[in-house]
Structure formats: structure tokens, C-alpha cells
Amino acid sequence: MKILVTGTAGFIGFHLANKLLEQGMEVVGIDNINNYYSTDLKFARLKEAGISDDAKNRNQKVISIKNPNYSFYRMNLEDREEINRLFENEKFDLVCNLAAQAGVRYSIENPHAYIQSNLVGFANILEACRHNSIKHLVYASSSSVYGNSPKMPLTTTDLVDNPISLYAATKKSNELMAHTYSHLYGIPTTGLRFFTVYGPWGRPDMAYFSFTKNILEGKPIKIFNHGDLYRDFTYIDDIVEGVVKILMHSPATTNFSPSQEKPEGREVKQPQAASYKPQVPYKLYNIGNSSPVKLLDFIETIENALGKKAKKEYLDMQPGDVYKTFADVSSLKKDFGYSPDTPLKKGIGEFVKWYNWFYQ
């Protein structure tokens, strides 16, 4: 089984590639290694996976010295010709698209980066899947699509027509684009709405990372909405386990396809609209711990793990931020018998252990 994982120099992509390799899969990773946050950390993740400094070269295949089943290319999703060439040359069975311009707040400062990576880039992935017989496309969505919904817990059947950041809007757009390709071309697609992922090798722009850094350095941490925020924090191992389970089981294939509308060139009488419900191989899942934690309690957990108190600076709510996230994972339990369950204390402990090793 040959799998393309985009964003493998990133946090989730790095861990996912490692897990798939452990299970004996052949993995090809791509990443553009942009400078949204430290490229040193991104290259360190690649090095940990056995990818040499040759990864700094564009569009050059680099094979891991630790595992010959892992190869890496540095390329942009927006580069349509290179993406098409990659698919044609490598002949993937499955695709997991995790590459995207991340960050809610940065989308206010630099909206064009999100349009190019999250929309143009995702369209290129969809087109490549369409023309290369991909058996299943799994892609990263986000809990941010729910906006400031007052309804809790958040379920994938909720209306999500009111995003409050461009980042959220691009992720909702990805879901719509994927559904269109599933409907038109029968490509099985599954979107995963991740809920505040944390853990070792994580992203420096995330709050838990900057909190840890500032507490250790004796600098104040910024606490928005005066600490009155709730997040469904999800440990990286739980996320990866869920992604692997879903990736290996594509949505039920459809009995309806465009080619069936006119078999042998004949018109087919369509049933009445009320009873005409073609099946589409498309699914959405929440992946979250289903246990919201108040921001101040989260900070206390980090303080306890570090053995050091934080200097706190209380601020108002930030534009684009949401008040609360709380994942309904009932469909994940129903379809896979699985739900994330790593306790926050354990997950933060693992992150702090890694942080001290990596930086000190």
C-alpha cells in the first residue's frame, strides 16, 4: 500500500508518516517547508525520520536513511504541474492531505497565503486524485468551522455557514470541494475536523507551546478573554490513531455515478426528487477528546508539569477566536469503535518531557 501524506514536515504529518511506516506502509511525504514558524523545527522532524539535508532542494526525491519505505519531496501544493507529475510517477493508492496554511490569527494578517495553499492547493490535490484512481482521500478540516456556535457538543451535522476567520472559511470550502468531487467522480473522501491538537514535536504558534516557553523563560503569558475560554484538547497520538483507522476504510462506495445516468447512450427516467437520494462516498468526522478544559485549568496543568508558576497578562478576546470547542465523536465511536481518551495531564507531561529534551 503506497500512501501520499502531504505536510510531513508538519506536526501531525510527521507523526502520521511514522505510524504508517511502523505498520509496514510505503509513504511518500511532501511539504513546502514555509517559514510560518521555525523551519529549523520542520527540518528537525524530517531528520528524526531519516530525511537528509537534501530535503532543502526543491522537487528532489530524498529517501530516508532509517526506512527505505519513506521518501520525501519539497514542493508546493499550488504547483499544479509538479503535483500532477508526482501522482503520475508514484502511483499512490491512498492520499492524506494535511498540508495547509495553518493559524486562525495569521489568516487575518496574510489572507492570500490561505487562498493559495488551502484552496488552490487543495483543488490541485482533488484533480490529481480524480485522474489517478485514488482509492481514498482523507483531508484535514478543523473545529474552527463551527465558529461561535452556542450548541454543544459540536456535531458534524450542525450548520457551519458562519465562519469567523478566513482560515475556517477555507476549511469549510475544502469540505464542499471534496463533496463535489465525491459526487461528480465517485472519489471516496473523508474530512477530519481536528480539535486543538497538542503533543511532542508540536507547533510553536500554538498556545501550549508558547506558554511552556515563556514560563520557563520567566516571561508573561498572554491569556485572552481573561481566561474564560474552553478547548477540547486532543493528544497527537489519539489524532494519529484515528486518522490511520479512517484512512484504511473509505466511505461506502456509491451506486450512483455520472456514467449511470445514460447507459449505452440512452436516457434514464429519473425518480421524483423526494425519493431520489444518490449515495455519495463522502464522510466527515470530529476527532476530539470530547472533554472541554477551561484555559486557566489548562495553564495550571502546564505549570504543574514544569514545576513553575506563570506570570499572567490578561487580555480581551482576539478577532477570529472562538469561545468554546467540544467535539461530539459519536460517529467515530459508531463506525470505528474508537474515541480519543488521553488525559490532559499525561499528554502535557509528554510534551514537556520532549520540550526539555529538544530545547535544553
What can you see in these coordinates?
An eight-stranded mixed beta sheet has the order 3-4-2-1-5-6-7-12, sandwiched between helices. It has a two-stranded parallel ribbon with strand order 8-11. The chain is α/β, with parallel strands linked by helices and 360 residues long. It is built from eleven helices and 14 strands. The chain has helices spanning 11-22, 39-48, 80-90, 106-109, 111-131, 166-185, 207-217, 236-247, 295-306, 330-336, 344-359, and strands at residues 2-6, 26-31, 62-63, 70-74, 94-97, 136-142, 189-194, 197-198, 220-223, 230-231, 234-235, 282-287, 293-294, 311-314. α1 (11-22) packs across α8 and α5 runs parallel beside α6.
Question: What's this model, at a glance?
Answer:
Helix content is 38%, strand content 16%. It is built from eleven helices and 14 strands.
Quickly list its features:
single chain; 38% helix; alpha/beta; 8-stranded mixed β-sheet; globular; 11 helices; 360 residues
Distance between the termini: 39 Å
Class from helix and strand fractions: alpha/beta
Subunit organisation of the chains: single chain
Specify Rg, calculated over alpha carbons: 21 Å
> How many helical elements?
11
Estimate the strand proportion.
Answer: 15-25%
Shape: globular
Outline the low-pLDDT stretches.
254-276
* Strand arrangement in the largest pleated sheet: 3-4-2-1-5-6-7-12
Report the strand count: 14
Biggest beta sheet summary: 8 strands, mixed
List SSEs in N-to-C order.
EHEHEEHEHHEHEEHEEEHEEHEHH
Average of per-residue pLDDT values: 91
Helicity level, as a percent range? 25-40%
